[in-house]
Amino acid sequence: MSKIRSTDNPVERMAKLMAELYYFMAEEMIDRLGKEKGEEAIRASVTKFGKARLESMYEEAREKGLPINLDTYLKVRDMPGISWERDPENPDDITYCPMHDMWKELGAENIGSIYCEIDDVLYEGFNAEFERPLCKTCGDDCCRFLVKPKK
Question: Within a domain: residue 86?
Answer without folding.
Answer: yes
